[in-house]
Write a structure and sequence with these properties.
The chain is mostly beta strands. It has 2 domains: 315 residues, Thrombin, subunit H; 110 residues, Roll (Pdz3 Domain). 8% of the residues lie in helices and 29% in strands. It has 5 helices and 24 strands. The strands form 5 sheets. The protein has a 6-stranded antiparallel barrel. Strands 3-4-5-8-7-6 form a 6-stranded antiparallel barrel. Strands 18, 20, 21, 22 and 23 form a 5-stranded antiparallel beta sheet that branches.
């Protein structure tokens, strides 16, 4: 844990708000709610079009018909840059929105009696003004895909510990974060992540005196409570907000990846009718006092950006996220929590089924966003190899089948991804594979430092 801690915040995690805005920004909250229309101009030329979307399907707890598709994980730019909608993300591609309140299916109701007790419930604009100084705008470079990405993070400590979604930094080879409170931009490194829980902690280099987020108690959140989702929606580089209400608690869902078609199971989520958009990921879901009660993570969106039915957003409860954040900042690794730099083989692989997570999506642990499926025998089919990587130096090529790593027989791409979580750069591991002629090979290679998973 860093030595400088926010006064009044247990273990340095900011339950004490200092500094920040005391009212609306200069000129007021003038811009009208952002319309759900296309971002002007063509998409960035460096980004390839996304693959076809999954067909619509029902989700647990959705009480209307026809149901929307599985909520898309709000991944940064490389997962949305080519969509013909207002959800296009690209670093530096701001569209002139400054602190706008986004439209949402909100009511004018106040928090229920089971919500956090406060003398006065704030307006959404005041809640944003109170909470925004405890956020950072995250921009990443996804080097192996020649892409850029954007997201949001929550300031946990004055020394620059930042809580965000793992998918915000998945595949990142460089990360920068701009603190909303002081306007400074910092280089960030990944302290650790919990991939299955979609959480990560970053450390801002040479940061001090940051305003920390006021953290609430998600156990007190009740259906009907007024909430505001704040984040870097659209990758504009400034916080904006969507107002709404809590519609359900403890929700389980399958969140799909907009780029690869893979998906993952999320559970225990807070469901809201606020419009959570790409770029909001890792941002704050705040209650009527401006306290963070959840981490914006996913939202419903139909194919091509058209909305079917009510807006739906999902957030990880802050009470779920904080123990994982504490474990990461205490450098306590486990089978689920990875600490420090990510080990890298340099293989491009993908999921062998529609429900798989994929073996290294977005240049993750295994090195890429390949398109080949797993082999029938459980081996991992190689869709491509990153030039200069350990796998390339070992002579592994496209079309080969990796059968074992570090003495562990593989049962598909997911098993390789899980295995790599526990590895560290510089470690020597054995690798066995079959080439396209069926000849078996074995070698020992040294894992490199790769992008975050």
């Amino acid at each position: 844990m860093n030595e400088q801690q926010q006064a009044g915040a247990p273990d340095g995690f900011g339950n004490a708000q200092t500094g920040g805005h005391t009212g609306p920004p200069p000129g007021g909250w003038g811009p009208p709610p952002r319309p759900d229309t296309a971002v002007p101009g063509p998409p960035p030329q460096h980004a390839a079009p996304p693959p076809p979307n999954y067909p619509p399907g029902p989700l647990p707890g959705w009480g209307y018909y026809p149901p929307p598709p599985p909520p898309r994980r709000r991944h940064p730019g490389r997962r949305a840059v080519a969509l013909a909608a207002a959800l296009v993300l690209a670093v530096g591609a701001g569209i002139g929105i400054d602190q706008a309140l986004r439209s949402g299916n909100s009511s004018n109701g106040t928090s229920s009696s089971t919500s956090q007790v406060t003398p006065t419930a704030l307006t959404p604009a005041d809640a944003v003004s109170k909470a925004e100084a405890g956020l950072v705008i995250i921009n990443t470079t996804v080097g192996y895909q020649d892409a850029r990405a954007a997201g949001t993070g929550i300031v946990l400590s004055a020394n620059g510990e930042i809580l965000t979604n793992n998918h915000v930094i998945d595949g990142a080879t460089a990360i920068q974060a701009t603190d909303v409170g002081n306007g400074r931009t910092y280089t960030a490194t990944v302290t650790g992540y919990e991939r299955n829980g979609d959480l990560a902690v970053l450390q801002l280099k040479s940061a001090s005196g940051l305003t920390t987020a006021k953290l609430g108690d998600s156990a007190k959140v009740a259906v009907g409570d007024a909430v505001t989702a704040i984040g870097n929606a659209g990758g504009t580089g400034t916080p904006s907000a969507a107002v709404g209400n809590v519609t359900a608690l403890d929700q389980s869902l399958t969140a799909s990846d907009e780029a690869t078609g893979s998906s993952e199971q999320l559970s225990g989520m807070i469901q809201v009718n606020a419009d959570v958009e790409p770029g909001d990921s890792g941002g704050a879901l705040v209650d009527s006092t401006g306290a963070v009660v959840g981490i914006d993570t996913a939202g419903s969106q139909s194919q091509g950006g058209a909305q079917q039915g009510p807006q739906q957003g999902f957030a990880i409860p802050i009470d779920t996220a904080l123990p994982i954040a504490h474990q990461i900042t205490a450098s306590k690794s486990s089978t689920a929590v990875h600490i420090g730099p990510t080990a890298f083989l340099g293989l491009e692989v993908s999921s062998g089924s529609a429900n798989g997570r994929g073996g290294g999506n977005g240049a993750g642990n295994n090195g890429g966003n390949g398109s080949a499926n797993g082999s029938d025998n459980g081996a991992v089919m190689v869709a491509g190899v990153i030039a200069g990587s350990p796998a390339a130096q070992a002579g592994i090529t496209q079309g080969d089948e990796v059968t074992a790593v570090d003495g562990h027989t593989l049962s598909g791409p997911d098993s390789l991804t899980d295995l790599m979580v526990g590895q560290t750069p510089g470690k020597q591991v054995s690798v066995q594979w079959l080439d396209t002629d069926g000849t078996q090979h074995s070698t020992t290679l040294t894992l490199a430092t790769g992008p975050a998973d």
